[in-house]
Each structure stands twice: as structure tokens, then as C-alpha cells.
Amino acid sequence: MIAIGRCKRATLACASLAVLAGVSGCARTRGHQGYVMDNALVASVQPGVDNRASVLKTLGDPSFAGEFDSATWYYVSRTTRQFSFGLPKPINETVLAVHFDPRGDVSGVERTGLERVVPISPVGETTPTLGRKRGLVQELFGNIGSVGGSGTNAPTADNPNGRTGP
């Protein structure tokens, strides 16, 4: 009778540990990507007062510079929340853009957030392609009679110029 009570307790303890281990995997996790914003340092960058060197000393290296205009430095910070194995969802995002004039002095500081983020859905049912729409039978048997031809450079539907080389 005592052995049966211990067995039930051990089974109950193992079951409760298994449930706790399973539930711990369902916890929300929080992640941070990019630049760590310090509001006091960001507020200290002033147009007309600072230049590239002082911004570099104050804020450090930018996340990236403008692709077509290197007169803008961007500092990007993003905080996400994720539940279990789901996709992370952004809860906070800050993009700090520091604009410089041709002399290298700060001409403006712009701060934006999630309001400028646009959701996109890159997964679609079909991918549009250019060219002819041919079925399976046409793909399999469409070249019969044209393989190993006489080698003429006559124009065809696939090759309107009739050229075989560059």
C-alpha cells in the first residue's frame, strides 16, 4: 500500500514536470534587432551644431548610409515579440535619419516609427512569367521534327530573327 502511494506520487510528479516543460516552450519571447537607442544621446544631435565626426562620436556607426545619397545616415532599431514558434511581430521600430549638408554639418534629424512600415505578402499562388503558355503535351512533344533539322537559319515563332548565335 505504501509502494502504490509512492508510485502515484512519482507519476504525478513526472506528469506535472512534463506539463511545465511543455508550457514553458509556449512563453512569449522578446527580441531586439539593430541599434540600441539612447534617447538622451539622440536628443543631443542638433542641426547646425553637430557634424559627421561629432555624430559618429555620439551615436557610433550608423546602421547604414543612404544608397543613392551618402549624405544621410540611418540608425534602425526594432523590438519584436514572438509567441512560441510563431513569426515575430514588430511592437516598436525607430528609424533615426541624420541628414548632412555638403560641408558635413547636420542639416536635419528625422525620427519615424512603425507608422511608416507597410505590410507586404510575398507569397502568392502563381508567379507571372513572360513567354508562351504551353501545356504539358506541347512541352513534351512540341520539338518533334525540329531537333536535328537541316541547320537553316529560317525565322520561327520562337526565334523571329532566325539566328542561332549571338
Describe the structure.
The radius of gyration is 32 Å and the shape is flat. It has four helices and five strands. A hairpin with a 6-residue loop joins strand 2 and strand 3 (72-83). The mean pLDDT is 80. By secondary structure, it is of the alpha+beta class. The relative contact order is 0.11.
Task: Give the count of helical stretches.
Answer: 4
In total, the number of strands is 5
Radius of gyration: 32 Å
Shape: flat
Q: Structural class, please?
A: alpha+beta
State the helicity in percent bands: 25-40%
Average pLDDT reading = 80
The H/E string reads HEHHEEEEH
Report the sheet-strand fraction.
15-25%
Distance between the termini: 92 Å
Brief descriptors of the model:
flat, five-stranded antiparallel sheet, 4 helices, 166 residues
Give the helices and strands, then pairings.
Elements: H1 2-24, E1 28-34, H2 39-44, H3 52-59, E2 64-65, E3 72-83, E4 89-100, E5 106-112, H4 136-141
Brief write-up:
This protein is of the alpha+beta class and 166 residues long. Strands 1, 2, 3, 4 and 5 form a 5-stranded antiparallel sheet that branches.
